[in-house]
Hints:
Radius of gyration: 18 Å
Mean pLDDT: 91
Structural class: alpha/beta
Bound molecules: S-adenosylmethionine
Oligomer: single chain
Helix content: 25-40%
Amino acid sequence: xxxxxxxxxxxxxxxxxxxxxxxxFPDGPKADxxxxxxxxxxxxxxxxxxxxxxxxxxxxxxxxxxxxTDVDGHAVELxxxxxxxxxxxxxxGFGMGEATARMAAADPGTNILAVDVHTPxxxxxxxxxxxxxxxxxxxxxxxxxxxxxxxxxxxxLDGLRVYFPDPWPKKRHHxxxxxxxxxxxxxxTRLRPGAVVHCATDWEPYAEQMLEVxxxxxxxxxxxxxxxxxxxxxxxxxxxxxxxxxxxEKGHVVRDLLFRRADQRP
Length: 266
Ligand SMILES: C[S@@+](CC[C@H](N)C(=O)[O-])C[C@H]1O[C@@H](n2cnc3c(N)ncnc32)[C@H](O)[C@@H]1O
C-alpha cells in the first residue's frame, strides 16, 4: 500500500454551488437514506454539515455505485456486496478511513464493511481504496444501529471494530455512547460464535464503561482472561487512528478491549 494516505485534493471552493433542493451527490450517498431523523431514538453521533473537498466529492460521485452502500433499511447479502465469500468485519465510525484502509491492505483475506455518517470520510476512504487497489472495502453511509438491526442477518459478521467512538464526556450525554448493554445485545446477534469485538478509546471513563458492560454481557468473553485489569495490550495490527493521535497529543492513555462472542448463546 502506498505511504500516502492523504489523497491530494483541491479546496472545496472548486465544488460548484448546488441549486437549492438538489441532492448533494446525485450519484453518491443519500442524505438520511433510512429516514432515521424521523425515528425517535438517541443517536451516538452528532449530525454535522461537513466540508467536502473536491477530491472527496469526485470520489463520492464516481465510486459510490461500485463500493458504496446506503444504510436504507433493506437486507443486504454480504457475499453479493463483495462478490466473494471472504469473512466480513464491520467497522463502526471509521472517520477519515486511514486506519481502515491500512487494515484492509494488510489483511486482503478479510472484507471490511466500514460504516459512518461522515461524508468527507466516505469520500476519503473511497479514494484510498481505489488508490491502493483494495477490493475488500465497502463503505456504508448511515447509522450503524440500523445497519445491524435491519440489514444484516444473524451470525453475518466475523468481527466488529469500534475505534475511538465519540466519548460523549458530559454526564447528560452518556446515554449517547455507543457501547452500552443494548448495543451489545444487538451486536451479539449479528456476530458469529468466536467473532471478536475490538474496541479502543483514549477516554478513560469510557474505557471503564466498555470493560464493565462487555464483562457483564453473557455473550462475550474477554480474550485476556481473568486478571491483568481486563484491557488488552495494543495489538500490532491496529494502526494509529486520527482521533487516537489527537488523544495521545493531549497525554491520554489508550485502551484496547478484545472480547470474543461466546460459542453458546445463553
Ligand atoms: C471520534 S470519531 C473516530 C473516528 C476514527 N475511528 C478515528 O479513530 O479516527 C467517531 C466516528 O464515529 C461515527 N459514528 C458515531 N456513531 C455512529 C453510528 N451510530 N453509525 C455510524 N457512524 C457513527 C462518527 O460519525 C465519527 O466519524
